[in-house]
């Protein structure tokens, strides 16, 4: 008999995000995804009011500790979208590395759970993270332009 896999959900809400219903929807999508896979949810970690430009997030630290404690169970971390682990390529890649060091497999729900360990997936991860960073730059530029008009 196969041992049932356990999973954790990680989400973060940026300081400027005033839409709590979006966070609830992300949590529900991740939970549904895990249930569809037959996994057992252990805990949901949510950082609020933090930046996606750093790994220095309180709930992320707690997630890492929980992963280390459950390493023998081959835990899985489910996130809704890649942007939930970082807003630039270096943070995304460092986050994936931290999760792997803690013994976890990262699953991005909006990629239908693709394996992020292959060289091709690492390439795609880097490109997608770069697009997230570009989007942030456009948003900042637009906000600056609106502030001056």
Name some characteristics of this structure:
single chain; 149 residues; 4 helices; alpha/beta; globular; four-stranded parallel beta sheet
Question: What can you see in these coordinates?
Answer:
With 149 residues, the protein is α/β, with parallel strands linked by helices. 49% of the residues lie in helices and 19% in strands. It has 4 helices and 4 strands, in the order βαβαβαβα. It has helices at 20-37, 58-69, 89-101, 119-148, and strands spanning 6-14, 40-50, 76-79, 105-108. The chain has a 4-stranded parallel sheet, sandwiched between helices. Helix 3 links the parallel strand 3 and strand 4. The longest helix has 30 residues, at 119-148. 29% of the residues are buried. The model has no long low-confidence stretch (mean pLDDT 83).
* Quaternary structure annotation: single chain
Widest sheet: strand ordering: 2-1-3-4
Structural class comes to: alpha/beta
Total beta strands? 4
Largest sheet: 4 strands, parallel
Instruction: Estimate the global geometry from the Cα principal axes.
Output: globular
Rg, Å, rounded: 16 Å
* Through-space gap between termini: 65 Å
What percent of the residues sit in helical stretches (DSSP H or I)? 40-55%
Q: What fraction of residues sit in β-strands?
A: 15-25%
Q: Catalogue the unreliable spans.
A: none
Order of helices and strands: EHEHEHEH
Q: What's the average pLDDT?
A: 83
Tally of alpha and pi helices: 4
């Amino acid at each position: 008999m196969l041992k049932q896999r356990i999973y954790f959900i990680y989400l973060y809400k940026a300081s400027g995000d005033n839409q709590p219903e979006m966070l609830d929807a992300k949590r529900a999508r991740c939970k549904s995804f895990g249930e569809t896979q037959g996994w057992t949810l252990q805990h949901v970690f949510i950082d609020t009011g933090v930046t996606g430009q750093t790994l220095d997030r309180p709930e992320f630290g707690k997630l890492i500790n929980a992963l280390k404690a459950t390493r023998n169970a081959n835990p899985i971390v489910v996130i809704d979208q890649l942007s939930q682990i970082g807003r630039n390529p270096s943070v995304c890649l460092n986050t994936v590395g931290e999760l792997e060091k803690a013994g976890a497999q990262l699953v991005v729900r909006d990629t239908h759970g693709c394996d992020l360990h292959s060289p091709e997936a690492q390439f795609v991860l880097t490109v997608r993270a770069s697009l997230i960073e570009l989007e942030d730059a456009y948003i900042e530029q637009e906000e600056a332009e609106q502030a001056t008009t």
